[in-house]
Amino acid sequence: DAGVIQSPRHEVTEMGQEVTLRCKPISGHNSLFWYRQTMMRGLELLIYFNNNVPIDDSGMPEDRFSAKMPNASFSTLKIQPSEPRDSAVYFCASRWTGGGYQPQHFGDGTRLSIL
Amino acid sequence: GENVEQHPSTLSVQEGDSAVIKCTYSDSASNYFPWYKQELGKRPQLIIDIRSNVGEKKDQRIAVTLNKTAKHFSLHITETQPEDSAVYFCAGPRSGAGSYQLTFGKGTKLSVIP
Questions:
Q1: Sign of the Cα pseudo-torsion (B9, B102, B31, B37, in order)
Q2: pLDDT tens figures, A63-89
């Protein structure tokens, strides 16, 4: 089991640039979650997908953030244009919704720094 | 949505002592409560979870208890070791969202002093 795979692990870019974060969920998992973690706000859910369909994006900070899941094996979180306050660690997590309550499994995260 | 309150925010214990972290929730329909451990610079990892049909679950030195009446659940770590030092997060399902979404507590930074 390769686990949830995120890329890049680290991203440093200047404000105003477009940032794209990538996630490959665990094979067979049909729910995918994007989180943002900061010291001030903790672990915040941004958006989640079920069977590739966005279900709840109420956590997305503003229109600069967008997420897609074109297939069961891949999702992206895009920030355009990026701002310094977007600096955080972004985690992707996945789970399988069958068989009762199943836990979410996290990727190693992307540490994003916007200068 | 669900509110999950976690206490304390920091906890220091001597090696070998026990550590207890408590979380409260607001939605009486909540029925799944996982605990995650996050070491510095790493991802949150599930260490134990409990469903609402049981009051306690143990896994070696870790146990979780659930009090549905009082709407709180706790993580107990016995015989603490330095490698237990990490940030621990509790979580509960969001109200009205089935079991798909989790609301996380703010975390407890546990330091085990050798």
A1: negative
A2: 999 999 999 999 999 999 999 999 999
